[in-house]
Design goal:
The strands form three sheets. This protein has a six-stranded antiparallel β-sheet, sandwiched between helices. Strand 6 and strand 7 (106-115) form a beta hairpin. It contains six helices and twelve strands. It is elongated. With 264 residues, it is an alpha+beta fold. The chain is 33% helix and 25% strand.
Length: 264
């Protein structure tokens, strides 16, 4: 009996160590759990944790199998964004969804998936996004002997964090397009207009330009003023891609000025 009790105690202790979830909180204590989620601490969680080797923390929760489970997941993803993280990538297939969020050098990967009858939400946090956060085939709905092979229908190589692309402050200042300000973290420019509607129209034109180029600024529309800022999420700051995009916006601005559609 004593040995059985000792084994039971060891099993409980091992389960606690394998599932370091702070009761009542989600995402390593980032925000409170308002969905009464149930942590998953068994083999599925351990496999996810091993796949995410190098992560600062990992968590997994069971979701309700119907539409309520999707609502639970959406609330969690929304809470991550409300905590200051911005969504940088989304990849989906019929069985899984992968979302990646960034706040400075901190990243959170959220994986919504199905394993047998279990629908789950797995979270991993890292300070640098790299190969350790790429979902492996065991989480893509098919078996694989290789725990390092990529999941092609989920993983986009552009998701990789590549700080080598980031320019220095000196590079940015030397190459800064006319009218723009900033440093290696972000560049921006304000554009003035005679009317609010003119600013909105300009923002629409910039959005179309960004879609065509495949690189998008943050836009803030104020009364008679629009502010644009560029930086490259995957590099953690300004790259040549941002400077080129800013010059393209300047060309659009000059075109509109020539047509008399701006106030400056």
């Amino acid at each position: 009996m004593t040995k059985l009790l000792a084994l039971a105690a060891f099993a409980l202790a091992s389960a606690a160590l394998a599932c370091p979830v702070k009761a009542g909180y989600v995402a390593n204590g980032l925000f409170k759990d308002t969905n009464n989620l149930t942590p998953i601490c068994g083999p599925l969680y351990l496999a996810f944790k091993n796949n995410m080797a190098g992560s600062k923390w990992t968590e997994m929760y069971a979701l309700v199998s119907d539409k309520t489970g999707q609502t639970q997941a959406e609330r969690i993803l929304g809470s991550i964004q409300k905590s200051g993280y911005r969504q940088v990538r989304v990849q989906k297939n019929p069985r899984n969804e992968v979302y990646q969020f960034q706040r400075g050098r901190h990243f959170i990967t959220a994986l919504i998936g199905i394993s047998g009858p279990t629908r789950y939400l797995a979270l991993a946090g890292q300070e640098q996004l790299g190969s350790a956060l790429r979902p492996t085939p065991s989480f893509c709905g098919r078996p694989s002997r290789s725990m390092t092979a990529m999941c092609p229908e989920l993983y986009d190589p552009r998701m990789g964090y590549d700080p080598s692309r980031k320019l220095t402050d000196g590079d940015v200042l030397d190459r800064m397009p006319e009218g723009w300000w900033g440093d290696a973290g972000k560049i921006g420019r304000d554009f003035g207009f005679d009317t609010y509607q003119a600013g909105v129209d300009f923002a629409v034109r910039v959005a179309a330009l960004a879609e065509a180029r495949g690189h998008h600024p943050d836009m803030h529309i104020y009364y008679r003023r629009v502010r644009l800022t560029f930086f490259t999420h995957e590099a953690g700051g300004v790259t040549q891609l941002d400077l080129d995009a800013a010059r393209a916006v300047n060309a659009l601005w000059d075109e509109l000025k020539g047509a008399g559609e701006t106030s400056a």
